[in-house]
Amino acid sequence: MDTDLLKRLCETPGVPGRENRVRDLIMAEIEGLADEITVDPMGSLMAKRNGPGKRVMMLCHMDEIGFLVSHVSEEGWIYVNPVGGFDNRNLFSRRVMICTKDGDIKGVMNPGGKPVHIASPEDRKKIPAISEFFVDIGLGKEAAEKVQVGDYVVMDEPFLEMGDKVVSKALDNRIACWLGIEALRAAKESGHECELHVVFTVQEEVGLRGARTATHKIQPDIGFGIDTTLSCDTPGVPKQEAVTVQGKGFGMHIKDGSFIADIALVEEIEALARSKDIPFQRTILAAGGQDGAAAQQAASGARAVGIVVGTRYIHTVTEMIDKGDLIAARDILSAWVAAN
Predict the structure, then answer these.
(1) Cα separation of 153 and 244, whole Å?
(2) In this structure, how many other beta carbons lie within 10 angstroms of the beta carbon of residue 338?
(3) Fewest beta carbons within 10 Å, which of 120, 169, 176, 298?
(4) Do 137 and 72 contact (CB within 8 A), yes or no?
(5) What is the pTM assigned to this prediction?
(6) At the top level of CATH, which class does the domain 3-64+169-339 belong to?
(7) What is the DSSP string of 253-294?
(8) In the prediction, which pLDDT does 125 show?
(9) Is 103 left (phi over 0), alpha (psi -120 to 50) or beta?
(10) Average pLDDT per 10 consecutive residues for the chain, totaling 340 residues
């Protein structure tokens, strides 16, 4: 498994509407793997491999959750507006990076208020709103000369391998970018009948926006939404709410808040997985959505499924996946394309 590529994908910053650096990395990786590579007006990267068969689309969103700078005070405190969903409890005392047109600047994020030594019991119970958090880059009043409204902010934490696990920020959804690249690589090696479109979409975390415009253009017959999903196989969560259990294979995504998978396509993929000894587990997510919904609802509609990888501690800097689950997702996508 090429963890170096996954590491580079995860550590490259790119929030909704600011995916260009991730796109550039992917574009370099897929050179020679597609018959046609284009970028649409919203910024989604489209890689097409020709074929006489049905039109198949794999959707892999590039954006990670983060922030846009909303205000820089005279004193140099930098305030932010979220692009994507955060649990504010996970934002205390975070190292961050502000990406500006002149370069990246390290900073630290904290909420306004008293430190623990002088905080009252009531202060310690409070979970601040995102509007109360600020970034300190250590430059005081000079910050206004370096940072402007609209610059973007990402978490700044390293990629780690821990036994059979990988831990990083932005595994949601750079694992899909990795899978999309690997699918193109496998398709070139194996050959295929389908007309294959692997699309690295923008702005999924704020409403599947890039997927909607890309699917409107391509109008697929079949769509694969490739993404993370929850893996709550950890203390404090009832087993019936775990969604996935790590180490049991890729997730065959049946339903979430945005779409219901085509059951015949689900069963076809499951039969192929069994024939190839590729482990999988069915998944249902009570809420939330993913790019597969956009494919399903494009133009006159498409058959759609989700291929997902269970992820612990999602939307944090400690997102964790099992390498075996990621390999299973890679293998089923490669096998399906080769058979179609």
Answers:
(1) 30
(2) 15
(3) 120
(4) no
(5) 0.96
(6) alpha beta
(7) EEE-SS-B--HHHHHHHHHHHHHTT--EEEEE-SS---THHH
(8) 84
(9) left
(10) 93 98 98 97 98 97 97 97 93 96 97 86 88 96 96 97 97 97 97 97 95 95 97 96 97 95 97 98 94 91 96 96 98 97
Q: Which phi and psi angles does 261 have, rounded to 5°?
A: -65, 150
pLDDT of residue 259: 92
Alpha-carbon span 338 to 191, nearest angstrom = 6
Domain boundaries, the chain: 3-64+169-339, 66-155
Residue 120's Cα: distance from chain center in Å?
39
* Listed residue (199, 229, 221) closest to 306, CA to CA: 229
At 114 the pLDDT is 83
Task: Please state the CATH superfamily assignment of the domain spanning residues 66-155 in this structure.
Answer: Peptidase M42, domain 2 (2.40.30.40)
pLDDT of the residue at 113? 85
Cα separation, 273 vs 9, in Å, equals 27
* Separation CA 164–CA 4 (nearest Å): 15
pLDDT of residue 137: 98
Q: Binding site residues for Zn(2+), as ranges?
A: 61, 172, 205, 227, 315
Residues flagged as binding site: 61, 172, 205, 227, 315
Structure tokens at 256: 């979430």
Q: Where are the alpha helices (DSSP H) in the chain?
A: 3-11, 20-29, 121-125, 143-146, 171-190, 209-218, 263-275, 292-296, 323-338
Which residues does the annotation mark as catalytic? 204
